[in-house]
Amino acid sequence: MFKFKVGDQVQVTAGRDKGIKGKVEKVLVFENKLVVAGANIYKRHKKVTRTKASGIYEITRPIPVSKVALICPKCAQTTRVGFVKEGKIKNRICKKCQGRLV
Q1: Is 3 part of any domain?
Q2: What is the pLDDT along the chain (102 residues), one digit of tens a residue?
Q3: CA-CA distance, 26 to 100, in Å (whole number)?
Q4: Is residue 44 part of a domain?
Q5: Residue 23's closest CA among 11, 36, 13?
Q6: Could you give the number of structural domains in the chain?
Q7: For residue 23, how far is the Cα from the chain centroid?
Q8: Tell me, what CATH number does 33's domain have?
Q9: Which segment of the chain is annotated as a signal peptide (predicted)?
Q10: DSSP category for residue 14
């Protein structure tokens, strides 16, 4: 089980986007990276195609998992993620408030 899921609220902890909060849009498990809305935005110059006009488009690039911290929905603090087994189900928990992460 991966520590981050699509829809989690996260905060960037390092790099040029340090302090930016956003939701996880995409999880790239094998690359160990996340796409976070509003963070790591780059400009890309595109040529004209049949479907799109030419111009300068803003794209969001993936961020390494090590530069991102999860924000707990209960205590609203950046936290680490732990795992607890309840029967056959494995749940994620907040390390600070011990609350279950949905």
Answers
A1: no
A2: 789 999 999 999 999 999 999 999 999 999 999 999 999 999 999 999 999 999 999 999 999 999 999 999 999 999 999 999 989 999 999 998 988 887
A3: 22
A4: yes
A5: 36
A6: 1
A7: 6
A8: 2.30.30.30
A9: none
A10: S
